[in-house]
Amino acid sequence: MLKSLLLLLLATLSLPLYAAHILVISSYHAEYLWDKSYNEGLIHGLQGEHQISHFYMDTKRQPREEFDAIAQRAIDFYLKSKPDLVVLGDDNAINYLANEIASLGTPVVFLGMNENPRLKGFVGHPKITGVLERPLLKRNISEMSQMMGGLNSVLVLFDSSSLALTAIDDEFKSQTELRVGQTRINSQLIGDYSLWQEAVLNAKKNGYEAIFLGLYHTLVDEQGKHVSENTVLEWTSKHTPVPIFCFWEFTVGKGRAIGGLVLDGHDQGLQAAALINNILAGTEPKTLSPRAALRGEYIFSKSELARWRLTLPDKWRHKILWRE
């Protein structure tokens, strides 16, 4: 009898976490590389076999006046789906949905959050926890400047999205110009594609020695239509008169940006998966404090380094992740 109970206990302990229905609600769209990256991280990090469904709010490509209606469609999808746990990807989904879903009793794990979770009431919240996103703007610029033997002046380009505003405010305290070491940084938030193109084409003439690409996903053309992020990135890489670095992994690659000390969505997904595993195993979300993901990865494009005839410091070589 004792032997049978022991065998039953061992079998029970070896079982994976119960199969749960996890709903991932994204602020953006399925083709967005950041979303692809964190979804891969989620899948790799989750323990057990779970049903995963998705709802994409597509707020990068939709006008802000549509956000309330989009959020309501997301809530309707959630109510119909009846998931065991909801993952909210990035600030728009978090801001519009986290508290409402949590109030209905469903645990919420967010990722890609740029705002202060304490100000949102998420620290110690009984149903909400997640992963913070902290772009390494100043540190990245400082390290790329050292790599290039010193940069006197650089241009930082962002679109005019709320995420861009948050990132600039967090790192630059709303200053459009500041210094990091010897480097003068000018940051610009641009909504129109034509103005973006003008800023890129005139970068060298205006005294900039490098461009750092932030976000470029909400630009519109002269007719007010959304311009594809791939179109913006490829045009920028092709026409820039100075080297281009970036802050996010999805911007790195041939015909794109050189790279830098960047954030990787895959790690956001892994960190969120670790929280989900704990919650599904019975841990209360309020005991799992929101956490920051890894403090950046050195990711570079071999072809873009060669194009600009740049050489990386030996001290980085064992840390670098390569693209092509």
Description:
The protein is about 35% helix and about 20% strand. The chain has about 325 residues and is an alpha/beta fold. The strands form three sheets. A six-stranded parallel beta sheet has the order 2-1-3-4-5-12, with helices on both faces. Strands 7-8-6-9-10 form a five-stranded mixed beta sheet. A three-stranded mixed beta sheet has the order 11-13-14. α7 packs parallel to α8. The N terminus is likely disordered.
Number of helices: 10
Largest sheet, if any? 6 strands, parallel
Q: pLDDT under 50 segments (min length 5)?
A: 1-16
Instruction: Label the overall shape.
Output: globular
Distance between the termini: 60 Å
Number of E strands: 14
Q: What's the SSE pattern? A: HEHEHEHEEHEHEEHEHEEHEEHE
Strand arrangement in the largest pleated sheet: 2-1-3-4-5-12
Radius of gyration: 22 Å
* Rounded mean pLDDT score: 92
Measured by DSSP, the beta-strand proportion falls in 15-25%
Q: Please bin the fraction of helical residues.
A: 25-40%
Class computed from helices, strands and strand pairing: alpha/beta
Summarize the structure.
This protein is an alpha/beta fold. The chain has helices at residues 2-14, 33-45, 67-81, 91-103, 137-147, 162-172, 193-201, 229-239, 265-280, 302-307; strands at residues 21-26, 51-56, 85-89, 108-113, 128-132, 153-159, 177-180, 183-190, 210-213, 244-246, 259-262, 291-292, 297-301, 320-323.
